[in-house]
Amino acid sequence: MNTGHPFRLVLSVLSLALVAYAQDFAPKNLLGEYEMGHRFSLEGSPSERSWFGSSLVINSDGTYRGGSECFPTHGTYVFLKGVLTLKAATKGTPHCFVSIPVTPEEQERLKNPPPPQDETLTVVEWSGRVYLIHEDGWQDFVSSINSGLLPHTNREASLYLGPFYRKLGDEDKPVTGLPDIPARWKQMILERPVVAEITQVRKVNEHKYLVTINKGHRDGISKDMPLYPLGLSEVLFGRGFVEAIRENEADVSLFGEVKIGDTLSTRLRRTGK
Predict the structure, then answer these.
(1) 2.40.128, 3.40.50, 2.40.30, 1.20.1300: CATH of 28-186
(2) N or C: which end of the chain has fewer CB within 10 A?
């Protein structure tokens, strides 16, 4: 009697079981609904949810729902060693019609879109709050802390701060200390806001200026750090970015007219903690 087939069947079942147990059980506080904000101004209401704002729901049965209200997606996920992997999503039925002019090349890409890919998110806990961060979202996460927008309150709940998700319902949880993030990024979190004065102004074009400020690496300024003119309320528009840094000064690119003596700050406004 040939016993090879039953033996191979048992091995296959055991292999599947090992794969299933290789992933960790998703912790209870990971389950729930998340949002990647869409408002650009502090003046807006957090209840103004955009049809295009990204959301994500992590279910206890290993499935998720994501995308936006216009373009929903769904699929399964794997949680292992603090990393959440959303397996290549299945697109749902679009709920709205969008007419956007596209080039012939873009039309061809829309007809033959690339295959969906897995999405990897690092789970960050901060005093009971949960954030899900894309690989390219660390700079934005740290900048949002330095800007005073994290830890967020209900007022900042729907702001677009970068490629990371915030869990809905965490807005009222008290926060102490710093988030558990890689040391490379944690060391960039400022103990206090840095306020700098513009000492030189060079006009690049009609809208862009390159300015020099009197604060640098010694003061906690780092490359690509966003800086805000005092009184600004826009999260994305009007801010500047550090392009070059020296010990006691730095060069910052800005969109909008400025002059020598104006001040820039790492803090957008006293909003979060």
Answers:
(1) 2.40.128
(2) N
pLDDT in tens, 141-155: 999 999 998 998 887
What is the 3-state secondary structure of 40-95?
CECCCCCCCCCCCCEEEEECCCCEEEEECCCCEEEEEEEEECCEEEECCCEECCCC
Taking only the tens place, the pLDDT of each residue in 132-189 is: 999 999 999 999 999 998 998 887 777 788 889 999 999 989 999 999 999 999 999 9
Burial of 211 (0-12, 13-18, 19+ CB in 10 A): buried
Say how far residue 21 (Cα) sits from the centre of its chain: 30
Evaluate whether 210 touches 253 at the Cβ level (below 8 Å): yes
Q: Where are the alpha helices (DSSP H) in 78-237?
A: 104-111, 138-146, 183-186
- Which of residues 161 and 247 earns the better pLDDT score? 247
Provide the terminal-to-terminal Cα distance of the chain, rounded to the nearest Å: 73
What type of residue sits at position 187? Q
Q: Which helix (H) or strand (E) holds 7?
A: helix 4-22
Tokens 């806990």 appear where?
125
CATH code for residues 195-265: 2.40.10.340
